[in-house]
Structure formats: structure tokens, C-alpha cells
What does this fold into?
Amino acid sequence: MNLRIIFILPVICGILIFLIAQFGFSDTLEDDAYISFRYARNWIDGKGLVFNESEYVEGYTNLLWTVILGLLYSIGIPFEAAASIVGAIFGAILIVILPFSSKWLERNKSWQSTTWASVILGVNIAFQAEAAMGLETIFFTFLVFCAFHFYFMELDRYSFPLSGMFLGLAIWTRPEGLWIALYFLVFSFMQDIYSNRTFRRSITIMAITASFAFLLFAFRYCYYGELLPNTFYAKTGGTVHQWLRGWGYLTHFWEAYGYISVFLPILICAFLFPQKNRIFFIIGFILTYFCYVVYIGGDYKPSHRFLIPVLPFLCLIWVWSIDELMHQLVKKRFSFKMESLFRFFSVGLGITIYIILSNSRYQDVILFMEASHQKTHLDRIASSWLNQNVTPNASIATDVIGRIPFYTGLKTFDFSGLTDKHIAHIYTKDLGRGPAGHEKTDAAYIIGKKPSYILLTSIQYTDYAHPDLRGRQVSFIESEIWKTIAFHEHYSLKSIDVTPIMHTIKADSFETPSGRLFFNFFVRKDSQKPVIPEDIRYPSVNRSE
It folds into this structure.
């Protein structure tokens, strides 16, 4: 049998496992993905790149991803299908091109072992889940990896710096793309100084990335009147609590993968690899990216989506460390062919053991995806009722502004401030104690806009009518809504039996003890005598949700 076929089997296995997982995670798009869908749909429909018509607020952080989805929608591809397909395509491409990184360190003779990195990435549940959630995470990871790949290729021979192009596209895709570009430029100039080369390549990369960044900031300022996305102000505040939450997020990531599994391979590569500057560039990127995630406060998802961009590099570090140890162990003792086989199977054995030990720790990701699948069906049921029973000029207020606002198209007021400049710019001294993106609010301000309906997530779906919010454990935002007297003066709870709709929509994943499903929301009332509960007993606040 041709040995080359054996060597590429890990890549094939990685792709197949990844694609099978995409079918298993079907219809699990995250609620945040629908925010971009709504922006893109309004853009294609001629209403502008806005969430609510005539309200110019940048409530997304993924301009290029939103534009791509909008273009696909314009040729007839539904948003949900487009996001799922594009995520799967770029995830599969990343798995395929991962072994080409063997050229980065001038280790072409050991490319065989590097193919195992494709298996690690392909079977990683977090990577699989993020590809299926409909966000830009995998696409951004692909752009960053390509920037690294072409940069290392350009170090060996001068050519047009495609690395600068990919860095520019990364800047257009995620805010941290700008930070990565700055990191690249610092290293590139230092590399030129170290190698006694001219700054021609570095200056060219800087000019390309600066052009992309200038266009982005110019568009953002002219269109939205801000230099940074509104979501940046809504989610960050530079508080100690935010950094502590980010540190907890990072340590949870380390625990999921194993502290030894993260840091020991890094140390092995740092001390054993001959090309120190290149391996230090990769290690430095991983470590400083960790610092960046701590600074912004992390995220609430168990899949660690903010750390997915470093995952391919960690996969390579794991493979390279085992391969280098085996190389040091058997060098000059076997023929080149036998040494390659020994290193290949040794890496394979080590990676297999690691996968078996680590993936069992990702049950929380699977539970998160199952919950997302269920919530998607429930929101479709609620949206179906709203589309059939409310007028197009009605409005809703909620702190979860993805699926229902997208499915209904109703004007939506955001309690969490992602699409509201006033709330986003509120200073919160305790920012970082709660879930990212849901810590700022001004309930009285939103209620003052007189939304037709208010949706509270904690009681939105029940198997009985008229659930009581009092005494429940709810989010910080919902507790602030409940404390607002105007809420009790002008809104009353309404429960709708949507069991018939549940039977017509594919909602098999949702079962209730009573077999019935109620959609609960608060509707604005016109009564002159407000009905305020005698016992406004505040719900307890759950800041860990």
C-alpha cells in the first residue's frame, strides 16, 4: 500500500467526523446569529444595514460575515441554511489545510505527523458546535490561520503579501482582527531587524492592513457615527470584575483541555525547536490572545468561542511537541522511512489517548446545543403566533433580540443595549459580575418607548397559564424591569395556548408534563386605573446565567 495514503487518512477522518457532527447539530443556530440575519435582510431589502428601520446602530461585530450572508440571501439562499453551510465549508477547509503548516518551520520531512492535527480539530466538539451555530467564529479562525500560513511562506521568498489581505479581511470580520494585525506587524518588523532585511515586506503588509482598517472605521463613523461597534460599549467597561470573569473563562478553557495538555507542549516546542523566532511567534500569539480574552471578559458559552481562533495552533503545538520528542528519541537510529512511520504512529497514539480523555469534558457543550435546538423550535412557535395575531406596526421589547425579532420583523427595543446607544454607553461599576452582554439596562427608558409587548425569558414558555414571576430566580435585566413601577402600571401578563401551533411546527424536541405549551408575555394596557400587585416581591437575581 502506498504510504502516502496512510499518511492522509487522519485528514480524511477529521473531515468525515466534522461533517457528520454538522448533521447532528442541525438546526442549532445560536440566537445571536439571527441579529446578523436581520441586519443583512434589512440591507438587502433596501432599508439599510440596520436592526430597526431608520435607527443607525451597529449592533453586530461581524461586518464581512453579515455582508456575505446578505449576498447569499439575495440569490435565494435562506439565512439559516447559508450560515450553516458556510460555517461547515470553512471548517472543513481549515481541517484540510492544517497539515500544510509543516512548511512553516521548514519541516517538510515531517509533514506526515502534522496530519494528526486535522483529527484533533475535526473531533473537537467545541469546533464542531461553533461551525453549526451560525456565527462568524470559524470563518474568522480560517482568515487568521491563512494570514499565518502566507506570512511564513512570504518569509522564505518575497511575493505579494497575501497575509496582509487575510489580516484585512479578519479586521472586517471581528474587532480583534485589528489587534492580531498589530501583533503581526510588530513581529514582522522585529523579524526584518533580526534577519538584516529591508522593511519592504513589513511596510507593504502594514499598508494593506491599514487600508482595510481605514475603510472600516470610515464606513462605521460615517454610517453609524461611532468608531467602535455599539456592542463593544454594551459588553465591556474595563472593570476589575470584567477581567476576573475573563480569567475565569480562560481557566475553564484550560480545565476543559487540561492544564498539562496546554502548557507542556508549548514548553517542549519552545525549548526543542531549532527555529525559535517562528515558534515563539506562534506561542506569543496564543499567550497574548489569552490576555486579550481576559481583558474583554470572555463569553457565556461553554464552547469558548472567543478562544476558537487559537485552537488550530494549539492542535499544531500538540502534534509538533510529540513529533519532536519522537524525533529526538530515534534520530539517526532508523532509516528516514522507518523514522517517519514511527513518528507518525507515535503521534497518532498520543493524540488518540488525548481525544479519549478530553472530549468527555465537553458534555456541557452538547447540553448547550440541545437547549439551542429546543429554543429554536419554541421561538418559531411564538413567532408564528405573533405573525398571525399582531399588527405589523406593533413592537416588542426583550433582552434576547435574535430569533423572534428576525422571524416576526417587528420593531424591537433591546433591554440589554446591543442595538441601543443609550443603554450601551451607561456606566456600570459592577460590570463583569453577570453574563457578558446582559449587564447593562435602563428598564424605565425602554418602557417609556411604549413597546406593545414585553417578553421575559424566564417565564416565556411554560406548560401552564399565567406563571408568577415573583419569587423566581431571574436575570439581572428582568429584575430591573420588575422593579420599574411603570411596568406594573402599563403592562399585564397574557398567556396564549400555542399547543396547536406546536403540533403543526416541528417541535418534537419539546415535551411538557401537561402536554400543553403556553407562550407568556406582557401586553400594554390602556386602563386608567393601573393594577399594581400589592406584593411587589422582587425576584431573586441570578447573575451567573
